[in-house]
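Changelog entry: the Phytocyanin domain-containing protein record was regenerated in this release. Current contents:
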Amino acid sequence: MAKGSGTASCSARAIIALMVVSVLVLQSYHVQASTYIVGDSLKWAFNVVDWPKGKHFKAGDVLVFNYNPSFHNVVVVDSGGYNSCKTPAGATTYTSGKLRSSNFV
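Regenerated structure tokens:
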């Protein structure tokens, strides 16, 4: 039997190395994610318009909304609903008093 040139085993090693690198990148993505309490100590209420200033959000970050459900709720809207300050038909509304953005992503 003739010996192969070894390209099949090199390809297999390259695929395994690529898989290992991919796993490491995905793990570092989760490690770098941050959790933000929206409004900080003021909680999620009115007058928190300046709260995002100075923060640098990225994909994977989690926003936690703490609010008094007797007076407030969280509604998922698109930019049009946000800019018009109107709840679009069929929008999802949360009323638990505590909500993580990972619940509605």
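The helical segments are 7-32, 79-84.
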